[in-house]
C-alpha cells in the first residue's frame, strides 16, 4: 500500500476498503447494562461540552491499532473517555487508580 | 465478541433450583473503569448522578417504533409526507419526537426507481432519536467498509435483492447529519390499519437493508 494513502485517510475512514469475502456478521443482542451506562455517560459529557462526539471517536483511535483491534465498541469508548479526561486535566491518573481499586474491591474483583 | 470479561463465578458450588435468580456476574475491567469514571465525575460535581440515569431513560424511550410511526404517517398523509421530507426535525417534533442529539434529520424517500441505504463509514452515526441505539453490525468494519462499494452484495447478505433497474443510493452519515429511509409502501396493503402498516416498517427497512414485505 502506498504511504500516501495513510496520510490522506484517517484510520477510521474505511468506506470502500472492504473485500467481498468479509461478510457482515449479522446478529442481534441486548447491550450489557454497563454499555448502556457508558453510552449515557458520554452523552452527558457531550451535553456539558466536556467531550464531544468527534473527540470521543478520535480518542478511540489514539489508543493504538493493536488495542483498537482487540477492544469492543464500548470498551474503546470508556478508554477514550478516560484518556480525554486525563488530557483535559479533569481527572488524574492517581484518582482513577485509587477509584478503580476501590470499585474492584467492592465487587470482590482483583484487577 | 465481548464476553471474555463477563465470566460467571460459580465457584461456591451451591446452586439450587429453588434459589432466586441473582446476577452473579462480576464486573470486568472496562465496567469497573466505567463505574470509576462516572463516580469520580459525580464526586467532583462535574456531572450529577441523576443526569446519567435520566439519559438512560431517554435511550430506553427510543426504538424503531417511533420511526415506523413517521413512515406510516407519511404513507397515509400526503401533507405530512411533504413536511417530513422538507424538514425531518420539524416533522418529528410535530409527532412529539424530540431529536435530542441536535443533529439534522433528513429523510431519504425511496421511489420505484431509487432505493436508499444508510451507513456511517467513519464510525457509528445513526438516527438514534427515532431508531434507538444501532445494532452491532451497523457499527461493524465490514458493513462500514463495504456498503459504499458494493451495496447490492451487502444487501444480499440481508436477504434483500434489489432489481438491477433500480438505482441504489448509499448515504453516509456524519456526526451532525443523520438519515432515515422512507421505504415504499408495499402493494396489497390498501386495506391495512395503521397498526398493521407499522408492523411492516421494521428498523432494517428504515436503514434500507431490507424492504417492507407483507
Can you characterise this structure?
The complex is a heterodimer of chains A (111) and B (214). Chain A is mainly alpha-helical and 111 residues long. Chain A has a single domain (32-111), classed as Orthogonal Bundle (Cyclin A, domain 1). In chain A, 59% of the residues lie in helices and 0% in strands. Chain A has helices at 3-8, 33-47, 53-61, 65-70, 73-87, 93-106. In chain A, α2 (33-47) runs parallel beside α5 (73-87). Chain B has 214 residues and is α/β, with parallel strands linked by helices. Chain B folds into two domains: 30-60, no CATH class; 63-207, Nitrile hydratase alpha /Thiocyanate hydrolase gamma (Nitrile Hydratase, Chain A), CATH 3.90.330. Chain B contains eleven helices and four strands. In chain B, α3 (64-76) packs across α4 (78-86) and α4 (78-86) packs across α5 (88-94). The longest helix of chain B is centred in the first third of the chain and has 15 residues, at 29-43. Chain B starts with 28 loop residues before the first helix and ends in a 7-residue tail after the last helix. The interface between A and B is large, with 58 and 57 residues.
List key phrases describing it.
heterodimer; A: 111 residues; mainly alpha; Cyclin A, domain 1; 6 helices; B: alpha/beta; Nitrile Hydratase, Chain A; 2 domains; two-stranded parallel ribbon
How many alpha or pi helices of chain A? 6
Oligomerization status of the protein chains: heterodimer
Total number of beta strands of chain A: 0
Shape by Cα distribution of chain A: globular
Helix content bin of chain B = 40-55%
In total, the number of strands of chain B is 4
User: For this structure, what is the CATH homologous superfamily of chain A?
Assistant: Nitrile hydratase, beta subunit
Q: Low-confidence spans of chain B: pLDDT under 50, at least 5 residues?
A: 1-16
Number of domains of chain B: 2
CATH topology of chain A: Cyclin A, domain 1
Cα radius of gyration of chain A in angstroms: 17 Å
Average of the residue pLDDT scores of chain B: 91
CATH architectural type of the largest domain in chain B: Alpha-Beta Complex
Amount of helix of chain A? 55-70%
Low-confidence stretches of chain A: none
Number of domains of chain A: 1
Mean pLDDT of chain A: 91
Quickly name the level 1 CATH class of the largest domain in chain B: Alpha Beta
- The SS-based structural class of chain A is mainly alpha
Strand percentage of chain B lies at 5-15%
Gross CATH architecture of chain A? Orthogonal Bundle
Amino acid at each position: 500500500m502506498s504511504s500516501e494513502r495513510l496520510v490522506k485517510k484517517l484510520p477510521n475512514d474505511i468506506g470502500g476498503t472492504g473485500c467481498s469475502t468479509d461478510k457482515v456478521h449479522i446478529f442481534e443482542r441486548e447491550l450489557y447494562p454497563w454499555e448502556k451506562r457508558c453510552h449515557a455517560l458520554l452523552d452527558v459529557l457531550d451535553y456539558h461540552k466536556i467531550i464531544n462526539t468527534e473527540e470521543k471517536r478520535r480518542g478511540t483511535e489514539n489508543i493504538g491499532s493493536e488495542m483498537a483491534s482487540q477492544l469492543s465498541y464500548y470498551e474503546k469508548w470508556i478508554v477514550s473517555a478516560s484518556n480525554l479526561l486525563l488530557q483535559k486535566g479533569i481527572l488524574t491518573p492517581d484518582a482513577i487508580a485509587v477509584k478503580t481499586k476501590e470499585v474492584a474491591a467492592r465487587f470482590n474483583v482483583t484487577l | 465478541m465481548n464476553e471474555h470479561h463477563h465470566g460467571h463465578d460459580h465457584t461456591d458450588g451451591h446452586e439450587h433450583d429453588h434459589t432466586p435468580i441473582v446476577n452473579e456476574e462480576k464486573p470486568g475491567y472496562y465496567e469497573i473503569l466505567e463505574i470509576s469514571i462516572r463516580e469520580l465525575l459525580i464526586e467532583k460535581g462535574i456531572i450529577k448522578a441523576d443526569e446519567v440515569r435520566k439519559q438512560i431513560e431517554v435511550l430506553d424511550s427510543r426504538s424503531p417504533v417511533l420511526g415506523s410511526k413517521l413512515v406510516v404517517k407519511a404513507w397515509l398523509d400526503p401533507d405530512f409526507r411533504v413536511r417530513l421530507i422538507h424538514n425531518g426535525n420539524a416533522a418529528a417534533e410535530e409527532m412529539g419526537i424530540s431529536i435530542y442529539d441536535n443533529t439534522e434529520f433528513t429523510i431519504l424517500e425511496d421511489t420505484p426507481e431509487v432505493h436508499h441505504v444508510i451507513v456511517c463509514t467513519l464510525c457509528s452515526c445513526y438516527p438514534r432519536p427515532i431508531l434507538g441505539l444501532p445494532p452491532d453490525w451497523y457499527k461493524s468494519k465490514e458493513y462500514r467498509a463495504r456498503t459504499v462499494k458494493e451495496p447490492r452484495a451487502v444487501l444480499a447478505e440481508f436477504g434483500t435483492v434489489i432489481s438491477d433497474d433500480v438505482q441504489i443510493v448509499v448515504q453516509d452519515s456524519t456526526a451532525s447529519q443523520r438519515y432515515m429511509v422512507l421505504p415504499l409502501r408495499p402493494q396489497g396493503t390498501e386495506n391495512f390499519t395503521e397498526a398493521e402498516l407499522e408492523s411492516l416498517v421494521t428498523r432494517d427497512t428504515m436503514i434500507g437493508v431490507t424492504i417492507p414485505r407483507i
